[in-house]
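Z., the sequence and structure:
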Amino acid sequence: MPDRKLSSRVKGLSLVSLFNDFASEMVYPVLPAFITGPLGGSAVALGALDGAADLTAAVMRWVSGRLADRRGWPKPLIFAGYGIAVLMRPLIAIASTAWQVIGFRVIDRVGKGLRTPARDAVISRLTRPELRGRAFGFNRAADHLGAVLGSLVAWLLLQSAVGVREVIGWSALPGVVAVAVLWFALRGNLESAPPGQVGKGPAPAPASPSRLPARDATGADYWFPLLVLVLLTVARLPETLLLLRLQQLGVPVAVVPLAWAGLHLIRTSASYPGGLLTDRIGARWTYGLGIAVYIATVLLLASRLGQVAAIAVFLLFGLVAGLVEPAERVAIGRLAPIRTGRGFGNYQALAGVVALPAGVGFGLLYQGSGPAALLVSAAVLGMGTMLWIAASRGIEAKSA
């Protein structure tokens, strides 16, 4: 019987994700109200906010993914990534224009770009192939639990008549805790170990680039499914626009953080079962199921709904993340079993590059046509899902 216990590194990094998202989600759900209210921004600015941030993270991920495959680099990349976020996030509170918020958010995303490929590669390398869905599901569940806590704290502060700027400023506290936990989680050697050998002695040195098979993170077998994953990622609306849609359906601004917390509670509850489902039926079908749920949900949100119905439909988006996030990470790990950092970096970088024009485009479409933007997203995702089923046909057979 194989050891079903997840690595202590996976658990430690998951706890860091929890506190980091605690801090992040005290800020994110109030940004639409902050930008379109006192700062006088527009829906285009909201689309640019996510797009520019993801573009910056993309550039960093492209480089970071390659560095993460080198011995000794994962730890400093992860430390630097979380440290930048802690330093920059509270500065949003002092912004006086929408474009300053975008600037601070962009710098914050530099940190995300540095840490994410390294963290995901470490989790993949330290986990047996048959447990990777659960490992990523556990990590995502912790991440979303932090978002629940952050959103609830933001809501409680707003209910106590604390201003939006002050709420954003208080996000520094859980961010500092995240870095402190990270120091304990990454103590000692962090070199990768082969699946099945975690905790059973020192890891061997990684294979030299000259000995790596050309098919790893290269060729049509890698790039075709990867590019389809990128399409299915950027065809989903920026979440700031979904939050704006809630407000336009009559949900009060003070309730939006509570709805955001509920969304992440669903994500927390769905992530580990989604990872377990990925381990059982494969990343191909679990990911496709998640996109199908997204299409159904976005079509409902495009219709005229009352406040209660709008919140209920919005919460269903939590099931999407629970299914999609573990599945996509397992898929990338299988597509790039040796250059794992590069595999994650390529995917995350390309998705971020396309996110800026996609985010601005959805913002312009939403500003001009409202709910029609949701229908366009659903249509593109419907076509993309058929491509994914074709492109991922051999992914379950790939060696991890």
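The radius of gyration is 20 Å. Residues 329 and 351 are 14 Å apart (CA to CA).

Let me know what you think.
H.
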